[in-house]
Amino acid sequence: MWRDVIEALACEYHVVAPDLPGFGFTESPARGQYEYTFANLAKTIDQFTDQLKLDRYAIAVHDYGAPVGWRLAVAHPSKITAIISQNGNAYEEGLSQGWEPIQTYWNDPSKANRDALSDFPTPASIKWQYLEGKRHKCGSTGCLYVGRGSYLSTWDGGYSARLIVGLRHQRCEVSRISGLFSGVSAAVARRMGKA
């Protein structure tokens, strides 16, 4: 999804594009070994940026990455130089009708409601999102893009919908994050001299 954007930006910028744990080309720690919540995903990415000694950076967020990015911006507004969001909701009203089975599970985490999610995401949607279009230079084994043309292989080939289970607790934070995000937007605008 971001391959062409990364390639274009890498001509002039240092680009670091990690997949979230359990997504894309990452390993998928078993449930119980890793807490799949937006807060913990943000903590993981925060530690990742610390390891790379990234003191100031712009973030591009999409889909599940958006709540992770919002948390990074709220926790470290002085580090964030810009936010680029594509399909990055910070409010519950942005969830489409397709989320109803997931919301049902969030409200009632019974085995029956979890089993109703056994085909989410669908094989067709995974294929479309991750296999169509330009292939990664590292081929079918999967990789993580870092910097100007470097790839690090980190993918075990597994994809798990268990994120739904861990993320069900996060919907209660949506209102709080939504309110905090408006404050971060104002702070970033002030730093950029636009407010």
From TrEMBL:
GO MF term (any one): epoxide hydrolase activity
Keywords noted in UniProt: Hydrolase
Domain called AB hydrolase-1: residue spans: 1-126
InterPro entries: AB_hydrolase_1 (IPR000073), AB_hydrolase_fold (IPR029058), Epox_hydrolase-like (IPR000639), Haloalkane_dehalogenase (IPR051340)
Top-level taxonomic group: Bacteria
UniProt xrefs under SUPFAM superfamilies: alpha/beta-Hydrolases
Protein name: AB hydrolase-1 domain-containing protein
Organism: Vreelandella sulfidaeris
